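Much of our argument rests on the idea that a fold can be written as discrete symbols. Part of our work consisted of pairing the sequence of a single chain with a tokenised description of its backbone. The amino acid sequence and the backbone structure tokens for this protein are reproduced below.
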Amino acid sequence: MESYDYIIVGAGSAGCPVARRLSDDPANRVLLIEAGPQAERFWVNTPAGMAKLYFNDLLNWNYQTEPIEKLAGRQMYWPRGKLLGGSSAINGMIFIRGDRADYDSWRDLGNAGWGYDDVLPHFRAMEHFERRSDPWRGQGGPLWVSDPVVKSASSFDFIEAAARLGHARLEDMNGAAHDGVGFMQHTIKNGRRHSAFSAFIKPVLGRANLTVLTDTRVARVMFDGRDATGVEVITGGTRRTIAAAREVILSGGALNTPQVLMLSGIGPAAELARHGIKPVHHSPGVGQNLQDHFYMHTGWRATAQSSYNANLAGMRKYWEGFRYLMTRRGYLALGSSQVAAFVKSRPEEPISDLQISFRPMTFQYFPDGTVRVERQPGMGVSVYQLRPHSTGQVTLRSPDPMDKMRAAPNFLTDAGDVAAMISGIKQIRQIMGTEPIRSRVVAEEVPGPAVTSDDDIYRFMEQTGNSAHHQAGTARMGRDAMAVVDERLAVRGVERLRVVDASIMPHLTSGNTNAPTIMIGVNGGAMIAQDATPRRAIRD
């Protein structure tokens, strides 16, 4: 039988660092499985190419939620990466660790080893921060973290306007302080996207003990009693079993991981019975606690010199393309947003609970799936709530592993979430109405001057609210009955099976979740290597 010591399911933001860490030991035979194809494609490597990946049929899972009651029954599009690198290969490349309190809260919920002082060494070790190394930032790690190569004058004016309203200036939002306003950082190296695959796996692809398998779907984890013994995979319509001598590690993300767990017989007993799946372990928390950052976008018509829309539209885009090919610089080398402001929805919040993001450009989505930069100059400003109280569920559509799971996010079912988002829209307007950014505004186009009252803003949210695509929490770690994994990320109730991805977050972090997810992979890989589960005998 084909066998490895460790089988990692999902070559995404967490799976790649796990595979890198475990294959550091030449005695370990490591298999990394990805449902999608390889990642060496021009628009994957080009930062501005993310717009072309948004609805890509080959490289994107293209999920749709179930109808959402509080959003007038709308379904929501959820892109997730389906290629080597996972969502880190299609996202906006924003690198934000989150607040110290996020991780201290994880620790205080009974998860030793996950407080901020515990995870900071992993954050520092995993990165190469272009600017410097200090007590908070690292250099020499595999993942490149850089500042925007073009910093727009509009971005400086947005920061100045927020500062005039009392928000602290942040020289490094991944440093000593989190609350305030400043330029974002991105996982971009020398003008090219630096995905988890590019950072952690590509440099070691020549290792004899590391095998990377693409275009392969994992149907289920195999068990002998309560011991995970391997995985059943589907490649080109053919099924086969691959054995794991030490452990199976699920790193498919907050949507795919609970699906694989349930297909394997681990999950709520009623959900398994509904689909005729033989139970291995009743774990009621699998698929529960689905969290995501609910997102609202505003659009502002701007003076000509305040936006780089014109550089990415018409004939100028060809010059930008040539410039990028020759220098790896310019507007095609930028991430999705330039500036972030972490603010409070109300004064009594202990730490900021809203993230406002600014970009000196605007774009349109079309029914055929294309995304196009607007020709007229514009500035985009968005907001999302950092620690929502509303939670949802991931359930099965059928027992067929080729079917997509069901996701019901249940956005805005908590009154506090609604109030926080209304505050966010008002604070965007306050910043955009403050000099010097005010002088760059020609008009507010979205939501527009007709949207004034709280009821108006709520209806705007109901009609246009979206996701920041930061799903997490569906196999959370903890010690209570709903916890799916323990603090070592081992699945409770079975042996030789772990979850290492955003599923394990007890709650969301305060910001974009890619950096925390990569850290989970780094920390999880270190834990697995340290625990060194003994090899079992492989039976034919």
